[in-house]
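step: validate -> pass
step: tokenize input -> pass
step: predict -> running
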Amino acid sequence: MNNLLKISNLSFKYEGEHILKNINFENSTGKLTGVIGPNGAGKSTLFRLITGTLSPTNGEIIIGDQNVSKLSVKNRAKLVSLVPQNPEIPSTLSVYETVLFGRHPYTNFLGWENQKDLDATNESLKLTKIQHLAKRKIQTLSGGEKQKVLISMSVAQNTPITLLDEPTSNLDIDNQILILDTIKNLQKNNHSFLISLHDLNLASLYCDELILLSKGEIITIGSPKSVLTEENIKRAYNTEIKILEHPLYNTPIITPVISNPSSNINKFYLN
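step: predict -> pass
step: emit ->
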């Protein structure tokens, strides 16, 4: 795998306070990397810095061989796409029109699409398996369907790396799995993803690598098994947990330590 994203000595201050401090990591082509950590750890800020919507106080972000901070908005949009948390999509647009908007960085100065843009849109709908929704209005979709439309739009944008900020938030477990399965299938096309997740067990199951953030700093980076330890979780989240092993996938399962269990559940967690 080739290094696609390289972040060096990245820091960001807001009103004199460090939101992120001395962040260093690399992301390889074809990898699904999870960014985890408690609320306020700096996950969303990190994504905004990578997309260039925020400028770092120190450090640099390199995608391929290009420094993000030195690129125009349009050229940045050809390198990195973002599926934001709680986005606002015009409800009167169709699914096709929304996905087509992902081609905006490639349209001419009048904003007109060509056949290549239309073909890319159709291919994106196919890859994310939502061709059947193409004519539907956004306002008629479920939460999971809307999230798949946003992912499809990022595929149409044709960037080497996609950032997904809490794509499973506010979804039931069925749609969470649907979204993460979609991302894993896209990964087979050698696409790279950075995804922030609150659910550590989903992060453990789906991600190739995890970055654990706390108070704006990286605590550790590595495989789910090396990152999701009782010591690391205690340090980042200040909470007691036990680690079990998934019986099918050999990945860590995070379980809470319950101080006043109402049944024999404590025996299951602590033995």
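step: describe -> DSSP finds ten helices and twelve strands in the chain.
step: cleanup -> pass
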